[in-house]
């Protein structure tokens, strides 16, 4: 996975007042910690951070965090945690974790399907069970995605984690029996829908019966 640079500034002020001031200036306060790194309060431009967060692939990337006013110190980091404003859904605080580039780490990366399924051509319905998969590798070997070829998948077939070929640079740590993608017969979808509809009707009937009983007791 390629790396992108993200500039940061050292945060001199502390507390809610200082954080609010930074946000008004277009910054997101945060903290840096991790491998051979003392905790450091910093801030990054909100616009730069949003560009990363809005791209599922970039969200998992190893970032080169460049701290401008700390001698141009550069750290390889990942975004460990994000706090968002519950109303505007904008980032209000970010945690960066400094990586040990010689040690393998576990990370989830997006699953991307490629090819056109035989089963779909025959009227089947493609169902993606997980859109991210956990792997283990060195920080600089994290892939942007894991591609899964579904072209040979027919109706009733499924691809499991154990079916994926092991890679030189990373290994899968997800449950081997976890289904990634399957092609289901349209009738199966209909049956599920009918069962759900029947369940809703039963709940509504039970609610109506309860109301009638309650009304009769009042009388």
Written description of the protein model:
27% of the residues lie in helices and 39% in strands. The chain starts with a strand and ends with a helix. A hairpin with a 5-residue loop joins strand 4 and strand 5. It has helices at 15-24, 46-53, 56-59, 118-121, 186-218; strands at residues 4-10, 27-34, 37-45, 63-67, 73-84, 91-98, 105-114, 125-128, 132-137, 146-149, 158-160, 170-172, 179-184. It is built from 5 helices and 13 strands.
Strand content: 35-45%
CATH topology name of the largest domain, in short, is Ribosomal Protein L25, Chain P
Total strand segments: 13
Largest sheet: 6 strands, mixed, barrel
Q: How many helices in DSSP terms? A: 5
CATH architecture of the largest domain: Beta Barrel
* Helix-strand pattern: EHEEHHEEEEHEEEEEEH
How many discrete domains? 2
What is the general shape?
globular
Radius of gyration over all CA atoms, rounded:
25 Å
Helix content bin: 25-40%
The CATH H-level superfamily of the largest domain is Ribosomal Protein L25, Chain P
Tell me, rounded to a whole number, the average pLDDT: 84
In short:
The chain has 219 residues and is an alpha+beta fold. Helix content is 27%, strand content 39%.
Please describe the topology of this protein:
Blueprint: E1 4-10, H1 15-24, E2 27-34, E3 37-45, H2 46-53, H3 56-59, E4 63-67, E5 73-84, E6 91-98, E7 105-114, H4 118-121, E8 125-128, E9 132-137, E10 146-149, E11 158-160, E12 170-172, E13 179-184, H5 186-218
Parallel strand pairs: 1-4, 2-6, 7-10
Antiparallel strand pairs: 1-3, 2-3, 4-5, 5-6, 7-9, 8-13, 9-12, 11-13
């Amino acid at each position: 996975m390629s790396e992108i640079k993200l500039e940061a500034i050292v945060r001199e002020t502390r507390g809610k007042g200082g954080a609010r001031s930074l946000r008004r200036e277009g910054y997101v306060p945060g903290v840096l910690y991790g491998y051979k790194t003392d905790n450091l309060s910093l801030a990054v431009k909100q616009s730069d951070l949003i560009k990363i967060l809005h791209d599922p692939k970039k969200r998992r990337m190893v970032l080169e965090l460049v701290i401008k006013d700390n001698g141009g110190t550069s750290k390889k980091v990942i975004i460990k945690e994000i706090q968002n404003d519950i109303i505007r859904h904008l980032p209000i605080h970010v945690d960066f974790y400094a990586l040990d580039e010689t040690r393998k780490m576990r990370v989830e990366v997006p699953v991307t399907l490629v090819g056109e399924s035989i089963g779909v051509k025959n009227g089947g319905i493609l169902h993606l069970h997980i859109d991210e998969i956990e792997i283990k590798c060195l920080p600089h070997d994290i892939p942007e995605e894991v591609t899964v070829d579904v072209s040979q998948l027919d109706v009733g077939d499924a691809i499991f984690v154990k079916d994926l070929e092991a890679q030189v640079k990373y290994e899968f740590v997800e449950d081997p029996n976890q289904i990634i993608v399957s092609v289901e017969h349209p009738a199966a979808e209909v049956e599920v829908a009918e069962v759900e509809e029947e369940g809703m009707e039963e709940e509504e009937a039970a609610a109506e019966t309860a109301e009638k009983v309650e009304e009769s007791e009042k009388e």
